[in-house]
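Hi L.,

You mentioned the student needs an example of a multi-chain input paired with its predicted structure. This one should do, with 858 residues in total across all chains.
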Amino acid sequence: MTAYLVSILTFVVLSAVLALALNIQWGQAGMINFGLAGFFSIGAYVAAILAVSGVDPVSSTLAAIVSTAALSAIVSLASVRLREDYLAISTLGFAEAVRLVLLNESWLTGGPNGIREIPRPFAGVLDPSSYEVAFLGASVLIFAAVYVLLERIIRSPFGRALRTVREDEVVAATLGKNVLALRVKAFAIGGAVAGLAGALHAFYLSYIDPTQFASFVTVYAFMAVVVGGRGSNRGLLIGASTVMVLLEGTRFLKELLPFMNAQQSAALRLLLVGVALILLLIFRPGGIAREYRLTAPARDDAPATAAKT
Amino acid sequence: MSRAGGEGIRLADLSAGYGGNDIVRDVTLAATASRVTTIVGPNGAGKSTLIKAVAGLLRPSKGKLFIGEKDITALAPAQRAAAGLGYVPQEHNVFKALSIDENLRIGFEFIRRRGGAAELRDARERVLTIFPDLGGRLNQIAGTLSGGQRQMLALASTLMPSPTALILDEPSAGLSPRYVRSMLDAVRAVNRAGVTVLMIEQNVTEALRISDDVVLLVRGQVRGAWPAGTFLDDPDVRSLFFHGRSDHDSQASGKERHHDASAA
Amino acid sequence: MQALLNGLIAGFLIALPAIALSLTYGVLNFANFSIGALITAGAYFAYFYNVDLGLHVLVSVALAGVSLSILAIVIERLVYRPLGDADHITLLVGSMGVAFVLENVIRLIYGADVRTLDITVSRPIIWNDLRLNNEQLVIVAVAVAAFVAVALVLKKTSLGRAMRATSDNPSLAEARGVNRRRIINWTWALSGTLAALAGALVAMDATVEPLIGTNYLISVFAATIVGGIGNPLGAMAGGLLIGIVEELSTLAFPTTYRQGVSFLILVAMLFLRPHGILGQAKIKR
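Structure written out for the whole complex:
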């Protein structure tokens, strides 16, 4: 039972890290990334390929972060001056292209079989039976570190400039803000965090293949961000937990509906997540988490207007 | 002299604004049937807000609006159009991607839904008589027209469904002097055909040339109504315009002043 | 030369959803990400009518078109209308949600197996070394007919004028008496029909599986952007162009990277000429 709990919690934390990435890009900078799963997968694969070739886990992770950040910057460059729809289209296209590469370039990525036996970081140092818990602990620390870092960025002049751009681009430009640079930077920062999440994912599972990075990853991240209240990092853990609860909860549907095969019940569960996302967008676009912050001081940097967008 | 056909526009205690703040307050005025009434006032007086409220783009916070005897306060812009109110906005007033002919057709076909091809033809002929310049370029895309021609097209489109009353938001805005005259002449021609006109204008001189009645709006409130001919002669007008109150008026500044039409 | 012909056929298949995308973008002002899922739904509707109900394949294609136009209106009522005047990023995310739900409903009902429509296999026509089979002829015929129909509606009918007017200036259109609700419904209906036809035709020509639509998504977006987003008739040209380029690229690169080629074209267009070769403005924020 504890093992189950530990694994669930680890997934929640890793999803929350990915949601942090989306929160910077979408919540703070107003940039739609429909290809999040693609960047996530690049982080995972870069880390995995390097680790399997003998590179130590820290460097592998750093490489993952740098590559995703760079790719994010490049992908956003083309559409950053245009409407959000275009970035959404480009990122989706990018994710598709990545998926094709992952599936076909078996010499590099293992193709549909993926990469196995990714060495677990510091496995030799710890007692195997407590490794899982240690990993969970490390993930929580990493999440906390990223959280703090991102909060500082949000409260910095950079963060304020970003929000100005999000609210009214024309005003921001008149104030002398370099809109292009701000947006690309924000997108790259988000990309870096997504790469980190990917690397952690690879190290946790020890085995990755393309099916783990399908569009549902992106949908889950969006849900976590919407539930948590777009722009607010505080709500993200709640958001990620909610998604997890929804997913795990619906696992029991299979018991209730035995006439469905495994594939169909999987489809049903994903379906329910999608419906939940739509319902949230319609009825609670500001997120659930916000409602509990009755005494939150006004110093929270996400302005009131973020709640209605 | 009265011209038959048009219906009067009447505002009763109308207040309207944006986001809960009223910009115009307690406006009561009447644009008499078949006459041209112009609302003038300094910048920021709320003229544009008032016209938008009459057009139906803004919900009034209080007050009523009538065309003839019909209460149109609760009607949406399209319904007001169907009730006979034509509105020419100041900008974005034509479909730039469509041709002149298509602009005219659209002006007609959704307001006079039951009108047939013959009625459309007649409407087009009628309108092109007032704007012959448009007739020679029916297939030209509206986006390629000059500013002045676009204003003409906007007015022409609004006239297609034969409105009984017309409201215009600064018809001369952004136009070269030549077009200012033509535009306002066109408005007068429309009025001579019997249509009531209520408009707001910055260009007071030109507006007075074609107006019958003038209403002064300062800081969201009506400060008086005059026949067009005597408006500039009234010594109080200057101070009302710039200071919102009359030098000679020893009473509270909100008092309206009305002048006998027979003095015109 | 065969590649050119195949590319043309593929192009017609891409053009139909591209026209649909341009229509909804113009009138509703957001990029509809569920277009891929709608294509898939069209294919499965065709399957349902053809295999489950046993109707003739051409009848099934037509019925699929009608069914999807109704479905599109229902989706609009359930999802996009309640979202109302949410900022249009929310609409984008909403459409992604719709795509996700649609795909999984299909998976739920039909599972992930690959299926085919019930068609009699016929001998291809061979002419001067070029092969063309019956299915491909039907594709061309349907696509051209659909294109002509859309063009006629847009240019000659009052509905078409109202759609173009709404696309150009929504508030003026309303002031001139255009019923926005009606236009929205018709736009979705048309869009749904086009997507369904594309899906049904793909099903006819190849197979029916849950991912067909998504496999087309990037090509469709590339075609729409090349033709100028918001320019439905340009989307036809865009579609044909992308189809041909993709097919020709398979002479040099592995076939699996077709969409990769379209992706590169897409990004290049965004850099160089975002309003497309034939399109017009409305792309700046």
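You could point out the following to them. Chain C touches chain B at residues 158, 161-162, 164-165, 167-169, 171-179, 280 (CB under 8 Å). Chain C has a mean pLDDT of 87.

Best wishes,
N.
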